[in-house]
């Protein structure tokens, strides 16, 4: 919706995400075909990050909301911080459709 909604990233990547925020996948709802370059890179990066968090997760496993003391994974580290740079990289293969906008009414 605005450049402030782009994932936080340092340096040139952060500037590119803010500048091209209009082509980024939203974190609320999206669909993807399995086995594409985007989904393969996405899964590989999430698994790489989870491997890095594994020692701390063993000591501080999350509760249902992931807000317990010591829980090591910041809210956006496995979604926006991964999918937004990849959506910028693969933007020529993405389609934005307003029908995919989620309803945030009573979402919990």
Could you characterize the architecture of this molecule?
This protein has 108 residues and is mostly helical. It is 39% helix and 0% strand. Helix 2 runs antiparallel to helix 3. The longest helix is centred in the middle third of the chain and has 23 residues. 13% of the residues are buried. The model has no long low-confidence stretch (mean pLDDT 88).
Topology:
Elements: H1 11-19, H2 37-59, H3 80-89
Helix pairs in contact: 2-3
- What share of residues are in beta strands? under 5%
Helix content: 25-40%
Termini gap: 22 Å
Q: Which geometry do the CA atoms define? A: globular
Number of helical stretches of at least 4 residues: 3
**What ranges have pLDDT less than 50 throughout 5 or more consecutive residues?**
none
Q: What descriptive keywords fit this protein?
A:
mainly alpha; 39% helix; 108 residues
């Amino acid at each position: 919706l605005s450049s402030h909604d782009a994932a936080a990233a340092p340096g040139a990547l952060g500037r590119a995400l803010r500048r091209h925020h209009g082509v980024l996948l939203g974190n609320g709802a999206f669909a993807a075909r399995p086995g594409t370059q985007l989904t393969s890179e996405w899964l590989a990066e999430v698994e790489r990050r989870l491997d890095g968090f594994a020692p701390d997760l063993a000591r501080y496993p999350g509760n249902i909301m992931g807000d317990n003391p010591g829980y090591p994974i910041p809210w956006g580290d496995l979604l926006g911080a991964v999918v937004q740079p990849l959506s910028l990289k693969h933007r020529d293969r993405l389609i934005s459709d307003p029908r995919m906008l989620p309803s945030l009414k009573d979402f919990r």
